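Chapter summary example.
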Amino acid sequence: MFQKILVANRGEVALRVMRAARELGIKTVAVYSTEDADTYPVQYADEAVCIGPAPSNKSYLQIPSIIMAAKNTGAEAIHPGYGFLAENAEFARACVDNDLVFIGPSAECIERMGDKASARETMMACAVPTVPGSDGICAGVEDARAFAERVGYPVLIKATAGGGGKGMREVHDPADLEPQFKAASAEAEAAFGNGGVYLEKLVLRPRHVEVQVLADDFGNYVTLCERDCSIQRRHQKLLEEAPSPALTDETRRAMGVAAVKAMRAVNYRNAGTIEFLLDQDGNFYFMEMNTRVQVEHPVTEMITDTDIIKEQIRIAAGEPISCAGRMPFVPQGHAIEMRINAEDPEHSFRPCPGTITKLRLPGGPGVRVETYLQEGSRISPYYDSLVAKLICYGQDRNEAIARAKRALDEFVIEGIATTIPFHKRVLDNQVFIDGEATTDFLETQMGDLR
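The structure predicted for these 450 residues follows.
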């Protein structure tokens, strides 16, 4: 096992990794920008190194600075968390080149699955169901038009690189194809430095269901059930739950089998997520693979009694997955995660940086809060707006919902606007209560919030 690891991230995920490491007897090194000098993760770590000024491209995205911090502090491995460099093949390769262990998959695997067109081809080759799509990246608008006419509208334009909804456009009318194609390509180029896009047939009113996976060097491939991430805004997840209220046991097993096929096809190692679209008839299709731990991993931990971060560290240290002997996993109870963002849902979810003047966290049985906040914490405009995650567990879905409502009522954050009121509305919505939410939930159920 490692003696010391560096956490190449900030905020709640940095703290989450450090806590798991401490329980494993591992010392931690925090890296931080000047903007984050006074934050709790920096105080919590055994050592901390400033790596640059506030903008992430001058600090958290500076590979040489992070590598140097690891070498100078004697860290043996680097955990990237999620976001920033977590799915950056160059960073994973730089770690290996400097005799550091990257706590994640290989650079080759990140590259192969990070390119969505390549990932799609890989899944088709190993018989994982995929949505009908173009043959690789579209050379131009005419390529896209030919595909759309062949499969019929609506279609979905998707950037081959990146994620988070950037470079993604729905096209329902042939007249909109050219402007949307150009807009998606330009957005992808600006966000990822790669303007390549491809097309898929648009699955109407699907659910977004993903399978948490683990793989080690001993031939163990573990699937930790699924999560339903259908409540989204512009392809950004807002609330997740596990297990999915839409899956039958048969579909759950089939999705797990497909996830293992996907892992084997790319010789996957460490933690990852295979994401699927589930249509109205119960058919599922591969969407993408995230080669990192996900923001929503706690809901899976709650229903499987598994610490995914610890498993990541064990795998990277050359140890077998400790929970492999419990396969196949059967979900126990139900968990819901609500992302508490520093955003104002009443005004188009605009970011709301500022200073926390009052903070009261909910507690009690089955309630877990992942946050780095303290009273007086300053929410920076430079970074992601996620400030906390509220995870509520129940013996069944009804209890999880009731507990989540109670916890939201107890949760007090003053000084900034947050998405707490939004989540209260979701939990009171009958479509959500009935377990029937699809990815168009905001548009169909909360038309006043966009």
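To summarize the output: The chain has a mean pLDDT of 95.
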